[in-house]
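Late entry, written up from scratch paper. The run itself happened at the end of the previous shift, but nothing got recorded in the book at the time, so transcribing now.
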Amino acid sequence: MTQSLTLEQQIDLHITTNGPMSVATYMGLCLTHPSRGYYRAGEPIGRAGDFITAPEISQMFGELIGFWLVNLWQQMGEPKAFTLLELGPGRGTLMADILRVACRAPGFRDALNLRLFETSPPLMAEQKARLDVYDPKWLENFENFEDGPVLVVANEFFDALPIRQFIRKSDGWHERQVGLLDGKRAFGLSPTPIPPQSMPDAVQDAAPDTIFEACLAGGEVMSRLAKIVAVQGGSLLVVDYGYAATQTGETLQGVRRHAYADVLDAPGETDISAHVDFGALANVARQAGLAVQPLATQGQFLTRLGIGERAAALAGANPASAADVRAAHDRLVGDAQMGTLFKVFCAHSPGLQPPGFAA
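Output as recorded:
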């Protein structure tokens, strides 16, 4: 019976039957419901979708990450077999740009085991169309990796993982929930307080009504992959919007048709995301035995890898597109655009020296 209901109706029925749900449960249903979730049913990326990611702006983004991966592969002694895993590969644009450059390095293509982690059937179809020549395989979990180092790339993946929200009150922290008020979805609080000492040190002195967000799913993904990299060698490269150290404040947001939208409206039709706590990810990676580079802005990272020179070369090769190349360069690295908002995180095997993180 519930299969015939819209996602909106299913969520409201769940609340009516079981009571309010956590923000994490609501966000998970909205994004990854088996048949009606945002990433299951639609094609969200691109000008016809709800948002545009860096790889869709310019080939330069993926090309430079391809160079970065080759550099690490060479530092590891050019292993004869390694896994390249992308989390949330979108339309396959980023990986296509990465491999177009990386496979020019002798031996890289022959050593490559390409793995993709994706939940959207429409996007998987696009990935297959773009990447089939590289014999990709899609993972359902993070187990049973082949022998050899593992290189992980995640662009705008962690921001889409469900978060829990907590609000500080006089008797402790209360989890924020989604319930029904006069028949409409609304935010409320769990009546059960959580003792302040159970929260991170960084929020112990938070003022009343302060919001704290925690992404337990992100920590779990990082933990599983970091443990694999710690044993087999390799790195994790994460590009996303977020903050360097655990802090308070609300970042949960909805986007629909390239404009901000209420996260409680149109479940399954709105992209819901939150800023990434890179400090928390770094702690998890270090606990697994990995080294962590100082967090860089996207602008710093791409500039250090040579995006200015690459833009000049592309513009010079095709003067008719020079203005578009310059505009893409500015959008990727400009402080007022993506350059500062987006951060680049890297955790890796001790001894490696990933480029792009030192001035």
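Residues 82 and 147 are 7 Å apart (CA to CA).
(Scratch paper discarded after transcription.)
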